[in-house]
Amino acid sequence: MDIIVRPTAEKVGVAAADLIEPFVRRGATLGLATGSTPNPLYMELARRHREEDLSFAECDAFLLDEYVGLERTDEQSYYATIRREFTRHIDIDDEKVHSLNGLAEDPEAEARSYEERIHAAGGVDVQILGVGANGHIAFNEPPSPLDSRTRQIDLHPTTVADNARFFDNEDQVPRTALTQGVGTIMEAHTIVLIATGAHKAEAVKALVEGPVTPGCPASVLQNHPRATIILDEDAASKLER
User: Which residues make beta-bridge pairs with 56?
Assistant: First the structure.
């Protein structure tokens, strides 16, 4: 596990873009995370597309997760969010941005199908991740089996509260989601996890320096051969080593 620390969230985004860009230039399969943390990275990649001819036309992308019960067109769905925050600003075809179907009648079948689509694409070449304040990655809430596969999961009250800022009120936040499993995520060839802000410092300490445990699903990245953790100074503030 490599650790990179930069002074601000914007600088974190630039450092992450430096790692992601070579994959884009060879038409790799990207794993995309949503939430506010990756936005500086997506803004920097979009800038490079506009100003430096960075093309995503040969790339495919897979989203990590999706709320159950929201249509793709709902502005709070993760498919709509990633399009609004990133993919509509670059030259990737919408049909090459793959997401879980939050309205699937059979969530288990949808989860299996999504795993098959990732496998058929040759796997994810580089997976972008964030980490929740409770140590979750994607929607793998603690404790999550470290070999778990894509599945439906109940969201922890902390996660619901954290995500309420994207909705009019907390009552509107879905309580279940479809998510890639920890084991699924670990099959990505390269992983880039971003964390910013003092509120992520405890989770960062646990994922970097704590034991590998289902109680902090992100800690499994200690076992990945090509994982890079990029932090701002606030998120890194509780690291001892």
Answer: none
Please identify which of the residues 44, 65, 162, 234 carries the catalytic annotation.
Answer: 65
Task: From the candidates 85, 125, 141, 234, give the one annotated as an active-site residue.
Answer: 141
**Which residues pair with residue 153 across a beta bridge?**
177
Q: What percent of the chain has pLDDT over 70?
A: 100
DSSP strand E in the chain: where?
A: 2-6, 29-32, 60-63, 65-67, 97-98, 126-129, 151-154, 176-179, 190-195, 227-232
Active-site residue flag, 134:
yes
Architecture of domain 2-232: 3-Layer(aba) Sandwich (3.40)
**Left, alpha or beta for 27 (phi > 0: left; psi -120 to 50: alpha)?**
left
Q: Please state, in angstroms and rounded to a whole number, the distance separating the CA atoms of residues 115 and 109.
A: 10
Query: pTM of the prediction?
Result: 0.95
Q: Which residue out of 60, 110, 134, 224 is catalytically annotated?
A: 134
- Burial class of 124 by CB neighbour count within 10 A (0 to 12, 13 to 18, 19+): buried
Q: Could you read off the pLDDT of 105-144 as tens digits, one per residue?
A: 999 999 999 999 999 999 999 999 999 999 999 999 999 9
Domain boundaries, the chain: 2-232
What phi and psi values does residue 195 have, to the nearest 5 degrees? -145, 135
Burial 178-197 (b: 16+ CB within 10 A, else e): bbbbbbbbbbbbbbbbbbbb
Kindly give the interhelix angle for 9-25 and 39-52, rounded to the nearest 10 degrees. 50
Query: Active-site residue 154, yes or no?
Result: no
Write the pLDDT tens digit of every residue in 18-56: 999 999 999 999 999 998 999 999 999 999 999 999 999
- Structure-token match 């969010």, residue found: 81
